[in-house]
Structures are given as structure tokens and as C-alpha cells.
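I'm stuck. Please check this protein.
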Amino acid sequence: MSQSHKVSIQNRQARHEYEILETFEAGIALCGTEVKSVRAGGVNLKEAFCVVDKGQLVVKQMHIAPYEKGNVFNRDPVRPRVLLMHKSEIRKLAAQVGQKGLTIVPLAVYSKQRLIKVSVGLCRGKRLHDKRDDAAKRVAERDMQRIIKERNT
């Protein structure tokens, strides 16, 4: 990532559980202490998911740790948060989720210049054999890289 992308929290479990078909970038509506907590790296995306509610894209179960020095200004760590996207993109996502049985999952949270952004993926759940195939491919790739490295040295 470039210098402008400082804070980067990845959702590694999403890449294991889902096949990512398309990715989008969205802003996120946060209050002041939440922004400070995100910049300190206090975000957990493990159980997070997105839904379209009344024409808005909302991320649920995203845990943002309370800011240490925030006292009374801290909010509920797992409250629903609105993602900021164009209406046309939200309508497109809602149509695809409704028709094809896909889901919307947050993949990463990062800062871009002064703003906090969320990378959102349109995903299809993997079956058990798909997960096994992916694991086998990773192991084979790692072994090939190791052999190539040994031959070159």
C-alpha cells in the first residue's frame, strides 16, 4: 500500500470463508472517539457483515474498541454503522444479493489521506471442498517457491 494508506486491518477469515466476486470502496460514518480508536488499530472485522437497510448500506457486528481516553464520549463497540456509497452502487449490490444469494462482507479498514475507508466485497460462500482445494493450492505453491529458492542458492 502507498504512504497514504496507513491503518490497515484485514478480514482474513472472509477470504477463507468466501469467494470474492467484486470489491467496492466505501466511506464509513464514525464519531470522533471511534476514529481515534480505528487509527490506533482497535478494529475487529471477524464477524462483521453488511446489509442494505432502507436504501443505506449498514455494517453490523464490526467491533471498534472504546477509545481509552474517550470516557463518556465512547459509543457502543458493536453498534451498526452506515457505509457511505453512491445510491446506484447500493441498488446494484442489493439486487445482486437478493437474486443470486450472495452476501456483502467488509474485507479491510484503512485510512486514505484523512478519511477512514472500508473495502467491501460481494461474496459467495465457499463449500468445504473449495476450502480444501484452496488450502492444497497454497501448500503446493509454497513448496514450489521453497524448491526454487533452494535451487537458486
